[in-house]
Design brief:
146 residues; alpha/beta; Tetrahydropterin Synthase, Chain A; 32% strand
């Protein structure tokens, strides 16, 4: 059985690490995040997991990603922003890779595993939508074919 809970946040980003195309310009999205939990058995309350106990994910997203500018840590614009007096550097989130939907899904998945009491066996996937028609889904045990 699979359950899911969704959250939304607004953020800006751009892709620069080897990327050439329209997404290399600064732009923003209204992101949607979906957390999926899966179990073959229900708990003592006849649930996979209590939806209320997933509220910490929304708080972390709001505190960490909402209304922030997400950038690759070696994006040339980072030094410009760090030296601009009118820019709040706390509003910039730096990632080890391009802030794609795929990478953001992985970051959220990893955060959930490392900072919560959700058993790893229950966390099935994190899905991140950049637009209503485009999304990426990260499974922790996914290994791409080469």
């Amino acid at each position: 059985m699979i359950i899911a809970k969704s959250f939304e946040f607004d953020a800006g980003h751009r892709l620069v690490k080897g990327y050439v195309g329209p997404c290399s310009n600064l732009h923003g999205h209204r992101y949607k995040v979906e957390i999926e939990l899966e179990s073959t058995a229900l708990n003592e309350y006849d649930m996979v997991y209590d939806f209320l106990d997933l509220s910490f994910v929304k708080k972390w997203i709001d505190d960490t990603l909402d209304h922030k500018l997400m950038l690759y840590k070696f994006d040339p614009i980072v030094s410009v922003l760090e030296n601009a007096e009118e820019v709040n550097v706390d509003s910039v989130v730096l990632f080890d890779n391009n802030p794609t939907a795929e990478y953001i899904a992985k970051v959220i998945f990893t955060h959930i595993l490392e900072h919560t009491e959700i058993p790893a066996r229950l966390l099935c996937a994190v899905k991140v939508w950049e637009t209503p028609k485009c999304w990426a889904k990260y499974h922790g045990d996914y290994v791409p074919e080469i």
